[in-house]
């Protein structure tokens, strides 16, 4: 897949190329830069229209170098399309709070470009540009956009993970969001769970920083990184698939699950790293039966930190794609092989 800058393709910019193609100009090349990417400003959390969201009480973040994922409610005034009336509109925004106190919002200019039903190549690209920040840093976050071609990163606002490169060039990786209630996960203590444990398999995507860019693990219809959790044994295993840009794969070695958190070791090439992560997302109850139709913890995210080799540090996130709460075995083989 050709690596082009991710900029929203506005109709006025796209129209000349579409018309040329329809007129027989099949060799018309798309522009390398589709629209100017704005500089990212820090959210002013002291402004009167910005309030910290109550959900932050249940947010958990993991990082390799500090910072946190947080949620805010931002109220703006908008003019009615039918009259001269002005009214307040409140939207929830998610940010990464840097160790030095900046608040960078996740948006369509710092999220990865994803394939959709009309994209010839359904593979995720493995090199990504980052959005510049006002103070000279760089920022990237996954994911404010997803499609039916990338269900493994469709987090439904459960989770965000990404990278911030400080103005001095220091790389920070993070993952965070609203952590799952362990009582409503597989094997949880809630009466509605009925003691069921079993297994679950997550499709995941991982990132690293390289220079002033982000590089990512392999994600295609035929090659998907998978992490499997066996709730019978409290173990987690799997592999984040490497490639020429990302480097060596990350293979989970000895990772233990305790409630809604997990930790342990992983390997990448000859290096051993420390795994730290969590399960995110609430359970849901069927409107018709009143019973649980989705266990908590549908999303997973974390960090693998390699002391002495920060180039290998990896942030990852994923979505549950297969589940068998009645499974009695002790293995970590993916359910959807």
TrEMBL record:
It is found in: Cell outer membrane. This is Hemoglobin-haptoglobin-utilization protein. Pfam families: HpuA (PF16960). InterPro entries: HpuA (IPR031586), OMP/PagP_B-barrel (IPR011250), Slam_hemophilin_C (IPR054843). GO terms for cellular component: cell outer membrane. Transmembrane segments: none annotated. Residues 1-23 form the signal peptide. The keyword Signal applies. SUPFAM superfamilies: OMPA-like. Keywords: Signal.
